[in-house]
Write a structure and sequence with these properties.
This protein is of the alpha/beta class and 371 residues long. It contains 13 helices and 17 strands.
Length: 371
C-alpha cells in the first residue's frame, strides 16, 4: 500500500512510498482509507518527542470501508462505511466505564501519541494511523457511519467530539453566553458550530486575525460576535469588548489557545459562578491568584479529548444536517501531497479550518462525484 511514514524521531518529514499492507489480527478489521483528518497538534507532539515508536504512520482521524476482518471479528462489517475511533484503552477501568476514556492508564491514540503510563502494549500494536491506503484497527473501535455523512466529514468527527466534551463541561444555561478563544482554528469553529445545540444564544469568538474572524462570524452572524486581540493588549480592552456583547459577562470560556496569556486577559469578562474549560494544552503559567477563582466562584476544568460517547453524540448531530458542518472542511489534499499539507497546516499561510487527506485514487473519485 502507499503510505506517508515518519521514519524516526530525528527524521520528522514524511517519507512517501509503498509498504506492506497490514493484516488484521483475530479481533481486528482492515479498513480501506477514504479520508484522514490532519491536525497541527500531532506535529507539535512529534517535535516534543511524545511519539515513542517508529517508523509510524500518523493520522488519528480516519474513515473508510471495511475490506476484511479477523477470524473472531464480525463478518457483517465487510463493505460497511465506517469511522475508526482513535482512542485506545483497557475498556473496563473506572474511567473507560464512566465516559472518561481519555483518563485510562492505557490511553493512547492511533496515529497519534501515548498518554497513559500503561499504554504501550496497545499502542505498539495499533500505533499506525490514516495517512495510508489501509489501516488495521480493533473491531471495538469501529463505528458504522450514517449514510448522510461523507467520509471527509466522518474523518473530522474527532474534532466535533472534542468540542462536544468542552461544551458539556462548560454546563451552559439555556440562553447562555460563551467565549471561544482561538476561534479561527478547527476546534474553535467546531465548538461554535455546535453551540446552538447547547442552547447558547451568544458566542464571542476571540482571535488574533480580524479577516479570519470575519469568516467565522459569517457562519452564523446572529449568534457570533468577534473580538480581535493581540498578546500585548491590556486586559481591560479585551474584557470591555466581551462585555459589550453581554454586560453581565460570559457564562463560560472554552479556551483552545495553545500559547500566550490570552485566557488570563479575558478572565474579568466571566460572570460570577462561570466556568473555564481549557483544551489548548497551553504551557504558559496562568498568572492569576487562586483567590480570584475562589472569590468569583469560577471553576477551571482541563480536558484533552472527547470520548467515544462524545463522538457518537456528535455523529448524530452531524448526520441530521451534514451540509452545515461539511462547509468547515476548507482544505483537501491528496496523500501524495502530505508534505505540502503539513507545511500549509503549520505555517497557516492561508485561512484553514479543517483539513483532510484522501488517498490519490479516492481524490479522483470525489472529484468525479462533485462534477
Amino acid at each position: 500500500m502507499f503510505a506517508a511514514q515518519i521514519l524516526s524521531a530525528s527524521e520528522k518529514e514524511f517519507v512517501l512510498g509503498d509498504i506492506d499492507t497490514p493484516r488484521p489480527g483475530p479481533e481486528d478489521v482492515l479498513v480501506e482509507i477514504y479520508s484522514a483528518g490532519l491536525a497541527p497538534g500531532i506535529f507539535n507532539l512529534l517535535d516534543m518527542g511524545s511519539i515513542p515508536l517508529f517508523p509510524t504512520i500518523l493520522g488519528h482521524e480516519m474513515a473508510g470501508t471495511v475490506v476484511s476482518v479477523g477470524t473472531h471479528a464480525d463478518t457483517d462489517l465487510i463493505g460497511k462505511r465506517v469511522r475508526v475511533h482513535p482512542l485506545l484503552g483497557c475498556g473496563h477501568c473506572e474511567y473507560c466505564t464512566s465516559d472518561r476514556d481519555m483518563m485510562c492508564s492505557s490511553n493512547s491514540m492511533m496515529g497519534h501519541a501515548v498518554f497513559g503510563p500503561n499504554a504501550m502494549p496497545l499502542y505498539s500494536k495499533y500505533h499506525n494511523g490514516g495517512l495510508a491506503e489501509f489501516v488495521v484497527a480493533p473491531q471495538a473501535n469501529i463505528d458504522v457511519l450514517p449514510d448522510s455523512i461523507s467520509f471527509d466529514l466522518a474523518a473530522k468527527v474527532h474534532d466535533f467530539a472534542n468540542a462536544m466534551r468542552a461544551l458539556k463541561l462548560a454546563e451552559l444555561p439555556p440562553g447562555g453566553t460563551l467565549v471561544v478563544t482561538a476561534a479561527t482554528g478547527a476546534m474553535g469553529v467546531a465548538t461554535i458550530a455546535l453551540a446552538r445545540y447547547f442552547g447558547v444564544s451568544k458566542v464571542v469568538a476571540l482571535g488574533r486575525n480580524s479577516s479570519r474572524l470575519e469568516s467565522v462570524e459569517a457562519l452564523d452572524p446572529e449568534l457570533i460576535t468577534t473580538v480581535t486581540f493581540a498578546d500585548e493588549d491590556a486586559p481591560p480592552a479585551i474584557i470591555g469588548a466581551v462585555r459589550a456583547a453581554d454586560p453581565a459577562g460570559a457564562h463560560a470560556v472554552i479556551d483552545f489557545l495553545p500559547e500566550g496569556p490570552g485566557l488570563a486577559k479575558v478572565f474579568g469578562a466571566i460572570r460570577y459562578g462561570g466556568r473555564i474549560v481549557h483544551m489548548g494544552m497551553n504551557t504558559a503559567p496562568f498568572p492569576l491568584p487562586q483567590a480570584a477563582l475562589a472569590f468569583n466562584c469560577i471553576s477551571y476544568i482541563g480536558s484533552r479529548n472527547g470520548t467515544r460517547k462524545d463522538a457518537l453524540d456528535a455523529t448524530r448531530i452531524l448526520a441530521a444536517n451534514p451540509g452545515q458542518f461539511e462547509r468547515l472542511i476548507t482544505h483537501r489534499f491528496k496523500l501524495s501531497e502530505a508534505a505540502d499539507a503539513k507545511a500549509q497546516l503549520r505555517s497557516r499561510s492561508e485561512p484553514m479550518w479543517m483539513a483532510v487527506v484522501n488517498p490519490d485514487s479516492k481524490s479522483n473519485v470525489k472529484k468525479e462525484e462533485e462534477e
